[in-house]
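Batch job 17 of 40 flagged for manual review because the log was empty.
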Amino acid sequence: MADTAQEKTEEPTARRLQKAREEGQVARSVELPAAVILISCFLLFMLAGGWLVSRLTQLFASGFVFDRKTLEQPTLLPTAFAAQATEGLILMAPVLGLTLVLAVVSAGMTGGYLLSFKAVAPKMDKINPINGFKRMFGPKALVELAKAILKFSLVSAALWVMLMSHLEELVMLGRMGLEPALALSGDLIAKSALAVSLTLALIAMLDVPYQKYEFKKNLRMTMQEIKDEMKDIEGRPEVKAQIRRRQREIANARMIQRVKTADVVITNPEHFAVALEYDPNGDSAPILVAKGSDFMAAKIREEARTHGVHLFSAPELARALYFTTEADQPVPESLYLAVAQVIAYVFSLEGAQPGQQGMARPSPTVPDSMLFDTEGHRVHAQAA
């Protein structure tokens, strides 16, 4: 079962395909560019082969004819040969240009165009003799052998058919003049080459889908590899947990720093603590600047004592504020009255003169809809 679970039975993901492309791995068929180039060039020879061969023959023959000036000044021979070579290149330029363009276009017809230096970088597995023997006698080598045998058979059959169908013309070549014979030879060669190249097109039609299939087969993945990739994309759970923990630590540290500027900390008194800040000269409602439960609540109470912030025990109000209000948010409207009573009491203590009796400690009432237990569940007034 363990071996079966590790079998690469799943199709490669888009990320796997992209990574392979970045490493220079794409589906490539060497048969397709060869077939496209040969067929196109031989079609060109069929259209202009007679004229091209005739013109090249004239140019070749003229290379053996020299005027008296050239004979008397041998230093002019290189110039004459260079002129003939240039004219020959100009005559062959359409064929060479067509070959270059088709080579570029057909190379990207299977797997697209790609520039990657990783594909040509030296790799140790390429010089490993064991891997070399596997490549020589593996399935891929057998496929290449089968393709070679098929190509040889098809090319031989095409040449045999061409030979039999043009046997009379081949016999007549010996009775014709030089230029007609060369023109006919060029035409026959072009037709034969086209027939041969068409057989290569058949090979290419079979090779292209096979190369695409083989490419994706080599990139197949196990279920575990797909799961690992999804974890990498979405983030590994342990890494995400660390990030969330760090975010909570930063947020908690920021809230602890805000406690020193708070006006009052309302407590449960042990499990919950919320710190409120109120500007009596402003128009906004009191703002919750920090809140916490258990260990965080203890830290808030400790920070409040350190900086002389008043602690006010009101369990129901502390739980209501904790479960309904986020940090840096104003308290809910339904809790305005209860919070106002606490803040008024704290301000009266701060403003009381020595020996003067302050405001009586209030017992803030929380609406029934804002009553919560320690788990954050709403409770009925009777349960409160």
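Reviewer: the log was empty due to a logging misconfiguration, but the result itself is present. Residues 12-232 form one domain. Unflagging and moving on to job 18.
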